[in-house]
Design brief:
alpha+beta; Sulfite Reductase Hemoprotein, domain 2; Sulfite Reductase Hemoprotein, domain 1; 3 domains; 14 strands
Length: 341
């Protein structure tokens, strides 16, 4: 017999409804997508003790346990408490009560590529930023999706999030170490924005206005004439989303932001969301909220009290391309066994 349960409340508790009545799937948050391997024992235990024995790697890099009965959810929440205390509270600095599991599902798990801790192309430590962002957005009842890419390759799909952050660098050129081999020029022509060229002195000229800060020149140089800057920078890609009706790719809202500036901007998101929704949190993509408010009002509120670093650029305007569907033609229903020719 299936007992009555509050599906909306359980969803807010990070338990997603199943097609099977009375069954739910726990979504364990992993901000930045890197944790100690010892925590895999936790999700395995949940899956085999209260779940159906299967395991799902969530599309937002969560650790998911399907097949949990509603009556077992209090026991699951009690069991995962040490994980929440170490990952959410100790590692990310989130202030939350952990006895009853997650308090909100609205801010989705912060996705990230492996970034600078491993990838040769990574410009920034994506996990470190994810932990700081987790503290900035969680817990709160207002929806937001975030992904962090360590470089402009954007393996984390930052272009399809409410906020996408892309790590950038301003490469430093040491002319005395340059041997004029042209490896960086070839790499930039092949993999980036073709801003480098060899001059008559067999040294490098750069069109700085079109550099995307990818750091490909750094990886290509055999003598270390190019190196990443000690200061990390970020792009913010805004308003991307998936969905059935109005999917769209995000556009660049800001460029060459420092981490402090980026975090100050994100801390304004709950206030902006609350203003648009009249203080009543509902599930809705960030891009839709920006559309409702208008870009100018969004920019005013999201930059309120933010001190931009000197290198920062903010888009004066953003125009998203939408695909609209309309049909004025009466479509005849297909008869039984009828096929489309």
């Amino acid at each position: 017999m299936v007992e009555d349960c509050n599906i909306k409340k359980l969803k807010n508790n990070c338990f997603r409804q199943s097609k099977v009545a009375g069954e739910f799937m726990l979504q364990l948050r992993v901000p930045g997508a890197v944790i100690e391997a010892k925590w895999l024992d936790v999700i395995q235990h949940v899956c085999t003790t209260w779940g159906d024995g299967s395991f799902h790697i969530g599309v937002r890099q969560t650790l998911d346990a399907p097949g949990i009965k509603s009556q077992d959810i209090p026991a699951v929440n009690q069991y995962i408490q040490p994980y929440l205390e170490e990952i959410e509270c100790a590692l990310c600095g989130v202030e939350m009560q952990t006895e009853n599991g997650y308090p909100f599902i609205a801010p989705r798990n912060i996705m990230a590529c492996i970034g600078g801790v491993h990838c040769v192309k990574g410009n920034v430590n994506t996990q470190d930023l994810a932990h700081k962002l987790e503290k900035a957005i969680y817990p709160n009842p207002y929806h937001i999706k975030i992904a962090i890419a360590g470089c402009p390759n954007d393996c984390a799909k930052a272009h399809f999030q409410d906020f996408g952050f892309i790590g950038s660098t301003k490469p430093i050129y040491d002319i005395d170490r340059c041997i004029g081999c042209g490896a960086c020029v070839k790499k930039c022509q092949h993999a980036a924005t073709r801003v480098l060229s060899l001059n008559a002195s067999k040294k490098i000229d750069k069109d700085v206005c079109c550099c995307v800060g990818c750091g490909e020149c750094v990886t290509a140089c055999p003598t270390g004439a190019w190196r990443r800057s000690p200061q990390d920078f970020y792009k913010i890609i805004l308003g991307g989303r998936t969905g059935k009706q109005f999917p769209r790719m995000g556009k660049m809202f800001a460029n060459w932001l420092t981490e402090d500036t980026l975090l100050a901007i994100v801390r304004n998101w709950p206030k902006f969301s609350s203003w648009v929704l009249g203080g009543k949190p509902v599930y809705i993509h960030g891009g839709h909220l920006i559309d409702r408010a208008g870009y100018e009002k969004f920019k005013e509120m999201i930059l309120d009290g933010v001190e931009l670093n000197p290198e920062a650029y903010i888009a004066e305007s953003i125009h998203w391309a939408e695909t609209e569907y309309r049909s004025n033609i009466h479509v005849k229903p297909l008869a039984q066994h009828e096929t489309v020719k």
